[in-house]
Amino acid sequence: MHEPRKPWSPQSRRDLREVLAQPSHERAVQLAASRNALVRATLAASRETPIGVLIHLSTDEHASVRAAVAGNPAVATSVTTVRRLATDPSRPVRDALMMNASVPGSLVRPARVPVPVA
């Protein structure tokens, strides 16, 4: 059995920018496991981040990371993730999702339930 890999952490902002320019799936997974919320939020905001990593980051403990996912146009490809973010307890997360032009408004706003007429 393989030993679990330690999370990779960039040594500088330049390292992070270089990795995010063309992140491999493996590197994105490693960055998603970083202890640094700013690294995770930067990864979540990148258009190049694989959708599987975005789905994972959408459940992050830090609202700033979840808000970065919500603002990423690529998140629109996961309806389940969009619906979860639409009901997030953090207002900035919900606001970021509403501002995301790639996400259909029907997924963000609660559907109106018709009131039965007596």
What does this structure look like?
It is a single chain. By secondary structure, this protein is mainly alpha-helical. The chain is 53% helix and 0% strand. It is built from 8 helices and no strands. The protein has helices at residues 13-21, 25-32, 37-45, 51-57, 63-71, 79-86, 91-99, 105-108. Helix 3 runs parallel beside helix 5 and helix 5 (63-71) packs parallel to helix 7 (91-99). The longest helix has 9 residues, at 13-21. The termini are far apart.
Lay out the secondary structure.
Blueprint: H1 13-21, H2 25-32, H3 37-45, H4 51-57, H5 63-71, H6 79-86, H7 91-99, H8 105-108
Helix pairs in contact: 3-5, 5-7
Contiguous uncertain segments of 5+ residues: none
What gap, in angstroms, lies between the N and C termini? 65 Å
| Extended strand count | 0
Helicity level: 40-55%
Strand content: under 5%
The tally of domains stands at 1
Mean pLDDT: 83
- Overall outline: elongated
Structural class, from helix and strand content? mainly alpha
SSE order in H/E notation? HHHHHHHH
- Mind describing the biggest β-sheet? none
* Number of helical segments with 4 or more residues: 8
The rounded Rg comes to 16 Å
Brief rundown of the structure:
The chain has 118 residues and is mostly helical.
Question: What are the main properties of this structure?
Answer:
elongated; 8 helices; 118 residues; mainly alpha
